## 1
Amino acid sequence: MRIYLIGFMGVGKTHWGKQLGKKLKMPFFDLDELIENDEEKSVNEIFNQEGEEYFRMKEREILHWVTETHQSMILSCGGGAPCFFNNIDYMNGKGVTIWIDAPFEILLGRLRQHKDTRPLLKDLDDEQLKAYIVKKTSDRKMFYERAQIRVDDQKIKLADFIELICKDETAGD
């Protein structure tokens, strides 16, 4: 089984992915980390030196590579990954997609604390950050909504997560 965790930056995809990987005894990958390893540069450096278009093409390439080389895995995808090159359709066809959602206030608090490590946020002041979150979550929602499962980061527990995944997996039988 392949599990793809999608959602806006700061919702906890990596946090949940690591926990699910341990509990389900499945390999866990972070798409951004795979890209960084392949490029031997940080995501920030890739954005600054090559631009977003290059990053999105590399993101698609690595998404396909990790999918084709692993029958069983959990992949934490970058916030924009489902929104480009029909990636959401690809992931839906290859495994289970889970949209992790979180309220605006939670996202704002998390992203405010870590914006220096996020290439699209590092130069934004507080008001710009709020506007960015509102605009991008609105733009991306139509892609996130195409996930097979939606969970609320604030209300879900690991056992609930696993139950949802297993229920979805058996629904196709």
## 2
Amino acid sequence: MNIDGQVILVTGGARGIGAETAKALASKGARLVLIDLDQAALDETAAAIGDDACLAVAADVCDLASMEAAATAAVERFGRLDVAIANAGIASYGSVMNTDPAAFKRVLDINVLGVFHTARATLPALVDSKGYFLVVSSLAAFAAAPGLAAYNASKAGAEHFANALRLEVHHQGVRVGCAHMSWIDTPLVQDAKRDLVAFNDLLAKLPYPLSRTTSVDACVKAFVKGVEKRSRHVYCPGWVRGVGLNRNVVNSAAGSRALLPHIPDLLPRMDAEVAALGRSTSARNIANAESPAAAVDPHE
């Protein structure tokens, strides 16, 4: 698909992977609709793209009416909608026994219901344009990690939502893709590494290559290529595909053997560090978080 002239909506578009992907798509001639809660960051990204080619809408993916209004504004501004990227997501850190239940719920609300709301709001326009819907899942959908149960569950749910949606809208000409990335080297991942020693230790103990961190630029290139090709699957880096194909092995007793001995030490330390911080997110995200225990998606 030629991106030039296409109208592309991106949730979580104010910063991180969402913003950088939007800029890359704009450089190829796309017109962007950026959705986020942070109006100041939205305006900054929109200004970098150019106000004539970008519509910035403050909207909450947890609220269907808010997303429907954003989709309507997109069509009113540009006359159509060709692509929607459900990129908004968060994570929370800490064990199931100690995590804040409100934080756990918030992860599911944004990462699963937020994807549903984005799809429900944009599908009428995508059916009209025979467009493309990209769900941003994660390597975490394939490979579980202790202390990230909410994130793991939500990203697996997002992946299977994409699988079901793909079957539902194929006959209407809409293509559905699902993106899976490893850890991305955004400032937010860097913040988590600074905040939580146990998080660094967890990454170090994960089997190679699950412990690897990938550049923002590589992720953006994968997303842009996925949009251009209307890909069924987007992987970044490429080895993530192999993990997905072998997920049963990764989550088997044999696959878990290398990490299991370290969990009795790692998990209590993570819980203690989160409790000491009084938050499980970087300080920069507290202002936009509805719960003090919410964390921004490590892929954003």
